[in-house]
């Protein structure tokens, strides 16, 4: 830990700076466009935010200054992504207390329903499907719930030895999870008001579902769709019912 990091660990955090950076509607759209964990160029983010290419540069600079975005160079091109999974987690939690956006068209309604059904929250599965999968993992004993004394996090989840064996058999990569990231975390899903699996294990499980072609990217950004193979696989492997797979 360098001297700057040590100093920051001893001081209060500047919540107002982050809130102000997120609070602009255009910047909020930029963050939500990246909440699925991918990287996008400035031109694509300008289109998502509904602003010009010249205007988006100022918004991106503000988000980088607040440590919400990072930039990656690929030759002459620059791609932006969320700085950490915690940014996506924070957006998910803000959505719990935010008012719904007005629906102005059939396309808006279709997109909203798709996001509620199944979407990516950074690199892990969210929406009704994500919540159903979390419940199935608990029912099967793959995850174990523990109560804590912390008021802000009264529950935590652990991957059991049985769960490690089950997920490894499915081909989930558990041996090389990022050390700096919590293995098992959860988000309170803003649509379902229940938990979906986050953390490194949540990301690894979702990556495996894509690799098996049980999940595919949907029509809208962040939206995922369940394939026929996925319906069969999630039913046979984790006991999800047809009603949970709608």
TrEMBL record:
Residues 7-102 form the HTH arsR-type domain. One of its GO terms (molecular function) is DNA binding. One of its GO terms (biological process) is response to lead ion. Transmembrane segments: none annotated. This is ArsR family transcriptional regulator.
């Amino acid at each position: 830990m360098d001297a700057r990091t040590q100093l920051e660990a001893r001081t209060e955090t500047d919540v107002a700076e982050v809130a102000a950076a997120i609070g602009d509607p255009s910047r909020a759209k930029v963050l939500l466009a990246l909440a699925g964990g991918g990287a996008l160029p400035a031109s694509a983010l300008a289109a998502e935010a509904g602003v010009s290419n010249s205007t988006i540069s100022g918004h991106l600079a503000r988000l980088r200054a607040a440590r919400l975005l990072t930039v990656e160079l690929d030759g002459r091109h620059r791609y932006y992504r969320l700085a950490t999974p915690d940014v996506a987690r924070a957006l998910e939690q803000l959505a719990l207390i935010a008012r719904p956006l007005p629906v102005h068209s059939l396309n808006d309604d279709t997109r909203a329903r798709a996001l509620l059904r199944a979407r990516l929250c950074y690199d892990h599965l969210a929406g009704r499907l994500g919540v159903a999968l979390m419940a199935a993992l608990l029912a099967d004993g793959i995850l174990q719930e523990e109560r804590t004394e912390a008021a802000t996090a009264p529950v935590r989840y652990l991957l059991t030895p049985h769960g490690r064996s089950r997920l490894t058999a499915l081909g989930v990569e558990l041996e090389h999870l990022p050390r700096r990231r919590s293995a098992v975390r959860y988000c309170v899903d803003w649509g379902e008001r229940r938990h979906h699996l986050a953390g490194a294990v949540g990301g690894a499980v979702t990556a495996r579902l894509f690799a098996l072609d049980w999940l595919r990217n949907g029509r809208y950004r962040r939206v995922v769709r369940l394939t026929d193979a996925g319906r069969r696989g999630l039913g046979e492997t984790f006991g999800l019912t047809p009603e949970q797979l709608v």
